[in-house]
Automatic annotation (TrEMBL):
Keywords: DNA-binding, Phosphoprotein, Transcription, Transcription regulation. Residues 6-124 form the Response regulatory domain. InterPro entries: CheY-like_superfamily, NreC/VraR/RcsB-like_REC, Sig_transdc_resp-reg_C-effctor, Sig_transdc_resp-reg_receiver, Tscrpt_reg_LuxR_C, WalR-like. The keyword Transcription applies. It comes from the Bacteria. It comes from Amycolatopsis pigmentata. Residues 156-221 form the HTH luxR-type domain. This is Response regulator. PROSITE patterns: HTH_LUXR_1 (PS00622), HTH_LUXR_2 (PS50043), RESPONSE_REGULATORY (PS50110). The modification 4-aspartylphosphate is found at D57. It holds the Pfam family Response_reg.
């Protein structure tokens, strides 16, 4: 039997936090190894117990969830944690900033328990939890607004220069919100071949997951918001 997914819950509302703990501990493949009521305590706890997944609220005292996520999973973190942001605030800038800070996924608190459980399992497996609608409408708009000047670099230079034409094509489809299965169907290749391409893209660009790949695709100008 595989070891359970070790979860830390960072949530300032006691009732909500207790609900998460109850839900996760009731799963045969999960174990809550700690909980925190503010961002600073959450960061310290995660660094101490090193869970598989951190369930993170955005609005918390002492340190908000976005900054806590950045400290745990940001680009400068040597051993980044997997953070699933769960919040009541369905606002564009919160979604984008959370993902830009290094979160592996974003969910709303009103999601059914089954979806929350599935979200933790998805993030624990190393996959990004990112709905196509979020990809196209939110990340696209905010990455376009904030992306740097090097977006104008010629196709043969810049951070995407290491990719082959096919890999750039796959990255474009990822940024469009397509799943591996949908990419396979569109390019008429096998699902395993798509997984290989995605793995190569992440390795070449030194990215942790599909979320980071999507943000980079928009920030470099490979794709633009519709």
């Amino acid at each position: 039997m595989n070891a359970p997914i070790r979860v830390v819950v960072c949530e300032d509302q006691a009732l909500v936090r207790a609900g998460y703990v109850t839900i996760f501990d009731a799963q045969p493949d999960m174990e809550v190894v700690g909980e925190a009521a503010d961002g600073e305590a959450g960061v310290a706890l995660v660094e101490r117990v090193r869970p598989d997944v951190v369930v993170m609220d955005i609005h918390m005292p002492a340190l908000d969830g976005i900054e806590a996520t950045r400290r745990l999973a940001g680009p400068d973190v040597v051993n980044p944690s997997k953070v699933l942001v769960v919040t009541t605030f369905n606002l564009d800038e919160y979604v984008y900033e959370a993902l830009r800070a290094g979160a592996s996924g974003f969910m709303l608190k009103d999601a059914p328990p089954a979806e929350l459980i599935a979200g933790v399992r998805t993030v624990a497996a190393g996959e990004a939890l990112l709905a196509p609608a979020v990809t196209r409408q939110l990340i696209g708009r905010y990455a376009f607004r904030l992306r740097p000047v090097e977006e104008e670099a010629p196709a043969g230079s810049g951070p995407l220069s290491a990719l082959t034409n096919r890999e750039r094509e796959v990255l474009t489809l990822i940024a469009d919100g397509l799943s591996n299965a949908e990419i396979a169907g569109k390019l008429v290749i096998s699902h395993e071949t798509v997984k290989t391409y995605v793995s190569r893209i992440l390795t070449k660009l030194d990215l942790r997951d599909r979320v980071q790949a999507v943000v980079l695709a928009y920030r470099t100008g490979l794709v633009s918001p519709r």
